[in-house]
Amino acid sequence: PSSILWLRRDLRRGDLPALGAAHDAADGSADAADTTDGQGEVAVVFVLDPTLWRGAGDARRAWLAESIKAADAAYDGRLCVREGDPVTVLPQLAAELGAGSVHVSRETTPAGRRRDGKVAAALARTGVQWVETGSPYAVGPGSVVNGEGTPYKVFTPFSRAWRDYGWPSPATEPAGLRLAQVRSDQSALTTLKQAREAPDLPSLPEAGEEAALRRWADFRDRALADYGTDRDRADLDGVSRLSPYLKIGAVHPRTLLADLADGRRGPGDGAERFATELAWREFYADVLWHHPRSAWQDLRTPLTGMDYDDAGGAVEAWRQGRTGYPVVDAAMRQLLHEGWMHNRMRMVTASFLTKDLHVWWPLGARHFLRHLIDGDIASNNHGWQWVAGTGTDASPYFRVFNPVTQGLRFDPHGDYVRRYVPELAHLEGKAAHEPWKRPDGYLHGYPQRVVDHAEERREALRRYEAARG
Ligand code: FAD
After folding, report:
1. Domain 3-135 falls in which CATH fold?
2. CATH assignment of 313-467?
């Protein structure tokens, strides 16, 4: 083969510009008469990096392993999986195959950028070219800047400029693509198989780009028109649940945006709103691009001197979904059971940890990243900073979500609570949100409230005001 396509956050075959670039490089360097020794073929590889693998929870591992399996099928069983540090694996593979270039979609997270810099340098030492084409975003992070050439700090002007910037049409598969058959590491295949078959896994969605596109088509035709109004309702099936696919790159946002823009959609502001939500994903990636330290540190400094509590028993109750606040518990259990949580509930549970339990947001962000199958450092950690009031364009520090009124508004019939908290299944309708009001509310082993929300709200405001001087 004369080129390598290294898949990372782009486990798909459709709408993948780096595949086109890899094919062009392979095709251009092939001797037209010689098709016997793999010349002109593209070797597609995934590198299982033990450093990243170790940090992932079982659900995340299983989701990745299922997604790799699906990508292998999409590449006609020719996805090569190798195990090890990419800095050594890629140069070795290039030498083994006689490849002249390694092609990727540009990685944009701080750790990914550091790693890619090292891999590119190692390849350069052996004369192998490193080529970045596209990224996991419709607009590459760092591209959208204001009139002065500086990055946007606030979402709304960013999203306007992001739309004006525009994005290319989806890429089509190069004609005459030939895929190389390259041996995988047996140890890597075994590791992936074990991850897929791990005991007590949450129920995961079907993996792969075909499943992602089916999910999109179903959502588009069934729920997109009402998305603007239904997206906040935790009890309804009103959101796309595409985040795990976007995370792994089984589908690219450009594919979805092109479909939204083609004018066939129904009435309502759903399509517009959906594009705006995709823009949040792009905004947070852009913020991380410009401020790599914002991954784990407060982006805004006024709250740097905040007085936080250490994690104690109440935090453990939060992790397990046993705080005594039904909607918080339903959401935290949804996270453990499905590896996913509804957006409104991510805000409610993050507010509960940071403002009712007074814990610094990175502790919660870490718990989410361990369990979410869509766990993404930019969207997750900046989502946490938004709730904590420490991010750029954050929720105001004095906004403290009330877990009861949030439940009553966004799960008005109590269905979401009953789905995940069986101890409350005997409470009808919205009574599920306030079991303490019913004498039999606690009969089924449901815990008492770990804190008093009204009291902790006052305490949070006191601490925030003290920190702001
Ligand atoms: P939909 O409502 O169908 O939206 C479509 C897509 O738009 C999503 O898949 C996602 O890619 C993007 N999107 C929507 N809302 C947001 C948002 N607020 N920020 C960034 N992108 C958004 N999203 C992740 O993908 N990974 C995370 O790790 C993550 N952690 C979060 C943590 C917290 C504390 C908060 C408040 C939000 C977090 N989000 C995260 C954003 C959002 O909750 C999820 O993207 C959304 O719930 C995914 O469900 P969906 O695909 O059905 O979303």
Report:
1. Rossmann fold (3.40.50)
2. 1.10.579.10
pTM for this entry: 0.96
Which candidate, 62, 279, 238, 250, places its Cα nearest to that of 154? 279
What pLDDT digit, counting tens, does each position of 157-187 carry? 999 999 999 999 999 999 999 999 999 999 9
Chain centroid to CA 38: how far?
36
Residue whose CA lies nearest to ligand 1 atom number 45: 243
CB 370 within 8 Å of CB 336: no
Same fold, 136-167+209-290 and 313-467: no
- Report d(CA 102, CA 113) in Å as an integer: 16
Q: Is the pLDDT of residue 33 over 60?
A: no
**ipTM of the complex as predicted:** 0.99
Evaluate the CA torsion angle 92, 96, 97, 98 in order and state its sign.
Answer: positive
Q: Which of 359, 374, 382, 385 to mutate to test the pocket of ligand 1 (most atoms within 8 A of CB)?
A: 374
* Cα distance between residue 238 and residue 225, in whole Å: 10
Average pLDDT over residues 87-116: 97
Residue 267 has pLDDT above 70, yes or no: no
- As a whole number of angstroms, the distance between CA 214 and CA 223 comes to 14
Residues near ligand 1 with C-beta < 6 Å? 231, 239-243, 246-247, 277-278, 280-281, 284, 343, 346-347, 350, 368, 372, 374-376, 379-380, 383-384, 387
Q: Is 29 a residue whose pLDDT tops 60? A: yes
Query: What is the domain partition of the chain in residue ranges?
Result: 3-135, 136-167+209-290, 313-467
Residue type, 264: R
Please say whether the beta carbons of 358 and 456 come within 8 A. yes
- 3-class SS of residue 392: coil
Say which range, 56-60, 66-70, 132-136, 191-195, has the weakest mean pLDDT.
Answer: 56-60
> In the CATH scheme, what is the code of domain 136-167+209-290?
1.25.40.80
